[in-house]
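Subject — a protein and its fold

Tokens — whole-number codes for backbone shape
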Amino acid sequence: QVQLVESGGGLVKSGGSLRLSCAASGGTLSNYATGWFRQAPGKEREVVAATSRSGGNTYYADSVKGRFTIFRETAKNTVYLQMNSLKPEDTAVYYCAAVQKYYSDSYYFTWSEYDYWGQGTQVTVSS
């Protein structure tokens, strides 16, 4: 089964940028639909962005459209979340997730559809 390890979180000022990485081992991400979720204190986990197995289909939450980009680097077996124009309300623990999908090229935006999760990385945006 695939293991996911996130990195790249940190403290950034409002308007700044961060790039989160999710490195996979034990499986090839081209066989998995992947997603980024976040959870702020006292709030439910919510989808930020998701991509299909091929990477050709993507989904973004309305709150991050135009600011965040999800993309994969096949050679590194890694999925990224590029976050620009960050706002204080983006502060949360960010998680990457994966679900194996050999025959579907759909994305998935509910957390219950994912089988594998990383440990999370904290993103804090100061005003």
Observations:
- The mean pLDDT is 95.
- Residues 28 and 77 are 6 Å apart (CA to CA).
- The chain has no helices and eleven strands.
